[in-house]
Amino acid sequence: MRTKLLFFFIVFSNLLFCQEISIYKEPYRPQFHFTPPSHWMNDPNGMIYVNGTYHLFYQYYPDASVWGPMHWGHAISTDLIHWKHLPIALYPDKLGWIFSGSAVLDTNNTAGFGKNAMIAIFTYHNDEIWQHGDKKPQRQGIAYSIDEGVTWVKYESNPVLKHSGEQDFRDPKVFWHKDSSRWIMTLATGDRIKLYSSLDLKKWQFESEFKPNEKNELGVWECPDLFEMFDEKTGKNKWVLIVNHGDKAPNGGSGGRYFIGDFDGKIFTKTQEPIWLDYGTDFYAAVTFSNMPNNRHVLLGWMSNWQYAIKVPTEIWRSSMTLRRELTLTSSNGDYYIKQSIVSEFKDISKPFFQFSKINNEFVKEYNLQSSKIYFDVKSTKNQKFDISFSNKLDEEFIISFDNGMLKSNRINSGKVDFSESFANKVQQLLITDKIYNFSLIIDKSSVEILINDGTYSMTNLFFPSEEYKILKISNLAKTKINNLKIDTIEGVWNN
């Protein structure tokens, strides 16, 4: 009997394994970007490092591949590259759905749930009262885990922060402010960010609000993040406030920007004009991991756009995350800015495939582009003009062009584009004020992340070709000095 049971267990396990492999090999499924096992996903939430493990929580609807009653999905990693799916962490309850938020490690037991308890701070959204006309349905709640995120208990006296009158009152990002010995919360409230403080994560006090004087409205403000960074060049610390906007990003729809400034424990003051984090249409809700070792700042975003997110041509799953990006602060002419680079751990799944020293006119290479990294140097100081294209035998192509300061990405003829009028209705543009000195592209099935000048500029885009891109073409249009071309293949991370 035991032998029969063992036999059936082995057969059943093999069937499940084969099913997982089949799912992760479906059309458009990224092989090294994070995706849910199935159904809908959007904002990254509660990202935190605890005892050698990175935790990623995310907005998740387990019953359909379109947005619905939100949960917190959960996955863990030991290297920021390979992820293991875990059971859902937070479910909706009588107070509402579980919208976006953050997680902290309460090392001093300020909340009384236990030393080193993991505490999630999230938005409750009561959709029932929303549907009945109450336009103030959002409040903040907390939950705690004393087993490093395996199980969660919601605080019995939720909500810990009721609305202050705004229709939108959500996405708390919390951190410990050492100088004031308080927890600080940044909260998106309509078209501004409000800051609150707390001694115990349960009682919150309003401190200030941040709303710059700007001519253009950028839709609802969402998913803020406030943290301190050090610039080795100047030897100074500056504070960075990330704000994600629901509309009117540089190339349409959703996007995120950051403000550089100062923070005194109560008030954030910007010291220069904001900068967009990414100029593509598929980079949103980006926030950083908490409790990172060695003072690392690692950013993760949702790789989609609310203009068409629920319509993209995927079936079992919908939406992916960007690659994890390491942030560094630098400065030039008195202004500060952030550089983004793919985390160093990514090198472990990158394998050299091809090198070419110099592109004089045109370079063409046939291979499966859709798990690869392409890199080259640009030495010219004048007449920087070149095109890059990914194409297939159906004449579908995604085109990147650069002409003396203007970068364009064109997905009008990239494959399936008719699922949404806004997906490929225009060529995307990015004005680059510096001379380009290096160019990096990371391609994974249905996306490309473009990083320029060591990540000073970035552009992230989705595409959905009818068959895989297998032709790379780089055209040197003005005797631009394009050197040191390197192509790496990228290993998949889900079925190794």
What is shown here, in short?
This protein is mainly beta. It contains 2 helices and 34 strands.
Can you tag this structure with a few keywords?
496 residues, mainly beta, Tachylectin-2, Chain A, Jelly Rolls, six-stranded antiparallel β-sheet, 2 helices
How would you portray this structure in words?
- The chain is built from two helices and 34 strands.
- By secondary structure, the chain is mostly beta strands.
- The protein has three domains: 1-30; 33-342, Tachylectin-2, Chain A (5 Propeller); 351-490, Sandwich (Jelly Rolls), CATH 2.60.120.560.
- The strands form seven sheets. It has a six-stranded antiparallel β-sheet with strand order 23-34-25-30-31-32, with no helix packed on it. Strands 24-33-26-27-28-29 form a six-stranded antiparallel β-sheet, with no helix packed on it.
- The chain is globular.
- The model is unreliable at 1-21 (pLDDT under 50).
Net shape? globular
CATH architecture of the largest domain: 5 Propeller
So, the CATH homologous superfamily of the largest domain? Glycosyl hydrolase domain, family 43
Number of strands: 34
Mean pLDDT: 93
Query: Into which percentage range does the β-strand content fall?
Result: over 45%
Could you describe the largest sheet, including whether it forms a barrel? 6 strands, antiparallel
With strands numbered from the N-terminus, the spatial order across the biggest sheet is 23-34-25-30-31-32
The helix tally amounts to: 2
Rg is 23 Å
Helix percentage range: under 10%
Please, how many domains? 3
User: What quaternary form is this?
Assistant: single chain
CATH class of the largest domain: Mainly Beta
Query: How does the helix and strand content classify structurally?
Result: mainly beta
**Gap from first CA to last CA:** 33 Å
Low-pLDDT sequence parts? 1-21
CATH topology of the largest domain: Tachylectin-2, Chain A
